[in-house]
Structure formats: C-alpha cells, structure tokens
User: Fold this.
Amino acid sequence: MKISAFTNFVCPVEGLSLLRSANSLHCVKGHNFDVAREGYCNLLLVQQKKTLNPGDNKEMVAARGRFLGGGHFTRIADKLFEIVGTIVAESKGSGHLRIVDAGCGEGYYLDQLRKRAVDSNFSATLELAGFDISKWALKAAAKRSTDIAWAVAGNRQLPFAAGSINLILSMFGFADWESFKTVLAKNGQVLLVDPGPDHLIELRKIIYPTVNVSPLPPASKAIASGFILQREESLKFSISLKNSSQIQDLLAMTPHAFRITAKARKELEALKHLTVTVDVVFRILRVDN
Ligand SMILES: C[S@@+](CC[C@H](N)C(=O)[O-])C[C@H]1O[C@@H](n2cnc3c(N)ncnc32)[C@H](O)[C@@H]1O
Ligand SMILES: [Zn+2]
Assistant:
C-alpha cells in the first residue's frame, strides 16, 4: 500500500478548509491554529477544553509509550492491520482510503498500521491522520512519522470535512457517534476496539478487593446514531511481564492508576513478575447513510 499524510483538515469552528502559512493553519474567516515545532497542529478550540491540559497527562503518555514500545501488544497491532486489510479489500475499486485514528494517544497503533501497510502488496493508497485531545500524546506521536498528519483535536469537534473519511479507528477511546457520522463518507466505517471482560484481570484482582466483571461497552449508542454493527471479533492472549517497571508502566497507562489504594500499590510495587490476560474486542460499525 502507498501511504500519504492527510492534508485536508478543516477549521473546527465552521468547517472551512484550512490553508497553511509558515507555522500555522488558517481559514478565510481568520481562525488561526498553530503548528507545533514537532509538526502536529493544534486544532483544539479553547471552549472545548474543560481543563488547561485535557486528556492523558505527560506521565501516562510516557508510560504507554514505553509499554507499547516493549512489544507486549504487537498482536493487537497485527489484528488491527488484518481487519483494515479486509476493509481495504472490500472497498471495491476505491483505491484511496482516508483513515483517521480518533484518540490516537502516542500514535503506536496508527504507526504500526502504517509500517505494515508499507510492507504489504495491496495497491491501495491510505491517507492517514491521528488526533487526540492530549497535547502530550501528540508531542510523542508526531515524532513517529511525517507520513501521518497529526493534530490535537477532540472527538466532539472533528477537524474533517463532512463526508470525507472512509474509516475511523477508535481504540480504547471515547467514541462520539454523532460527530463520527458527520465526517464519514457514504458507507464509512468505524473500527471500535475495546477491552473485553477479562482484560488485565490479574492486575485488577490485585487492585480491587472484588473484581467487577467489566462488560463490553454496548453498541447501543452507535446504533441509536445510525450505525450498523457489521462484525465483532475477540482477541485473547497472555503476556508475561518480567520486571517491576513493565508492571508499573501497565498500571500507569490505565485508569486503574487513579483508583488504586496505597496498600495495593505497595503490593504491586513488590511484584517482579506478572502474567496478565489481554482480552480485546474489535467491532466494525458501518454508518447507514
Ligand atoms: C486509553 S487512551 C488510548 C490511546 C490510544 N488509542 C491507544 O490505544 O494507545 C485514551 C486516549 O483518549 C484521549 N481522549 C480523551 N478524551 C478525548 C476526546 N474527547 N477526544 C479525543 N481524544 C480524547 C486521551 O488523551 C487518551 O490518549
Ligand atoms: Zn474558521
């Protein structure tokens, strides 16, 4: 596959095309957005920010980067590419697909997709963009590849023209179905990746006195917004963490880090090995437009 960086961001205020000048993007109505030194653009509106630095903080982003960089979740990236390959193959004749990673974090999965696509023999061209509400995430992501366009932006005000995107990836994120629907092209799809019921169960058993089964988030909101669930696949495997820093990084990249008691934290800090279950569910939803 050929890869190209997405070029058509639109102004998140009213949706007009953004034009590039020196170190910023602007629309004809005079809205200006900075392009950071690292190469990502900042398309997040002040009124979208509930806090000064929304989204994952610097430490969470760094922990996720170290952990994913250790290759523990390579099989998730493999599965992602397998499914995207199927979508490309099924998109009969459409040789050019715009793919956006919504809530891309520090860019691991989108960059893994890019690498696998470059090495594959599909003839399609993938135009790629990743965005996240966390500027820390983007600072890290933008270093991964200049063949991907990177932006700080929120799921609620997407910087893409209506009907322009073929596939949205929403991995362990916060899908906004109404916004997704607006920017998706005819028969556009969302690949939704969520933790399954047994995800990191061994870690959760240390953290919580009683482990609640975490049911898969229902697809009902998506369906209410006009999406059709087309396919669902689970991926389950075990990983073996062999030192304390890997265990600490895994904790730090999850929301469990905010909920853990001092006692459980101590217990976890003493651990040198941990085998954990990875349980992930991939769902493909197609917009009925
Ligand atoms: C669990 S992380 C997953 C990151 C990445 N998809 C991955 O799997 O490595 C969730 C991400 O969603 C981002 N996020 C939270 N609220 C968001 C919003 N409203 N719009 C876009 N991204 C958001 C966070 O900053 C964080 O990077
Ligand atoms: Zn504007």
Notes: The chain has ten helices and twelve strands. The two ends are 28 Å apart (CA to CA).
